Amino acid sequence: MDRKNKAWSTEELDYLRTFSEFPDGDNCIMVAQYLNRTPGAIRTPVHKLRKEGVHTKLLDKWTDWEINALINMNG
User: pTM of the full predicted structure?
Assistant: First the structure.
């Protein structure tokens, strides 16, 4: 399923908000896989949540695995 430029559903945003505030060990890559989105696509709504005053923990620190995955995806 191609998700490029597809609008975020309310359910997806609710899920992202929950895991942004309380990641419970999940990271950006895991959330992206669950939502069938790219890690980069996850960052934009998380930054919007931060601008709205939501304290998000999802992007506080990238793991080495996430950094390497992004480097490999970027080619």
Answer: 0.61
Inter-residue contact 9 to 47 (CB < 8 Å): no
Alpha helices in the chain (DSSP H): 10-21, 28-35, 39-51, 64-74
Q: In one letter, which amino acid is 47?
A: H
In single-letter form, the type of residue at position 70 comes to L
Tens digit of each residue's pLDDT (9 = 90 or more) over 12-24: 988 888 887 776 7
**Which residue, chain included where needed, has tokens 């960052």?**
43
* Whether pLDDT at 1 is above 70: no
The 10 Å CB-count burial string (b at 16+, else e) for 24-44 is eeebbbbbbeebebbbebbee
